[in-house]
Amino acid sequence: MVMILRRSEHSTVTIIAVIALILWFTAFSMIIYRVDHELDLCAHGGCGENPAIRDASIKQRILAIDNMEENELQSPEIPYQRHPILRKMNQTSNPIYFLHIGKAGGTSIDKLIQGYRRTLYTRKKYYGFNHFDWSYIQMHMMKNFRSKPMETEESGRLDVSRSADVITFLRNPVSRSISQFHYSKTLTWAKNMNASFIDQTLEEYVHDPNKTWFQPLNDGEGGIDFLSGIFKTDSWVMTDNIESEAKEYLRQNKTAACLLSAKRLEQTVWFGLLEDVDRSMKLLQISLGLPETPALQKRNSAPVEYPAPSNEIKKEIERYLPKDMWLYHFAKRLFEARWNYFMSVDGGVYVPPELPPLPEF
């Protein structure tokens, strides 16, 4: 009888020990899962932090960057460092950001890149099909690629030029302006507002002293404001949603905005010119490592042909666009330098172009 009781007590103790071991193992597993889960969240930019606190932190960093750039641009001699980005898109896993300038052939570029990315470069993210400026790229990378090692400059700021593959497509600002004017006549908002310019010729619009819509004549929309990242937060272009003193300074100091835009154009991995499509596509082929030269399809064009403007009206429009015209002149020089380098015209040596004389704003 005593033996039976002892065996029963021993069995009970064993059962209790097994149950305790199971409970301990379950609790330990839950702790391990929680740690792993939190580490996974951190890897994807979460880290269990409050989104509002995270966004505030990003905003503070962007403002700090803006302040550093403003200090640089306000120096007695505005610094201009050459940044020849001569790598190719197929050499990195960087995300691609397309700075889509309105009425410059950007819709066609979006469709083209998307088609090739689907077949060849699924590892590379592509951000396009929208209008955003340089400040948006900076903000977007800080929010979405925090787990990815990103290049920084000596100042500690995010170096977009090395952490992202920025591309863009430029057009002669006068031609872009004319296209903007005619295309806008077909848009719903213009028809709903019964906008006066709908019934005007280009000449009548340019000479109209009472016009209230200036988008075709806005200096900066042809490239400068996109590259310098100074669109206002309430504009039709996506930004970092921050109004800073540095941005306002660049809006007022047009020379500084031009130089910053030229610097960032040099930081693009690829850019093309609508007036030089064939060679632009050849350079795109080289950058993407494609077996053949892509064909750029014309998309999102005006539904009807419009009469060619006179040389006089072209010159009048050009006078509205000194910043964008200066950038376009530099872009043509930079395009030739890149063409000569990638086609080995200069023996495979990159020769950076000289800056054109700056306008007297």
TrEMBL record:
Keywords, ordered alphabetically = Membrane, Transmembrane, Transmembrane helix
Residue ranges of the TM segments: 12-33
InterPro entries in the cross-refs? Golvesin-related_Golgi, P-loop_NTPase
Q: Kindly give the PANTHER family that the UniProt entry links to this protein.
A: COUNTIN RECEPTOR CNR3-RELATED, GOLVESIN-RELATED
The identity of this protein, by name, is Sulfotransferase domain-containing protein
Origin species, per record, is Cyclotella cryptica
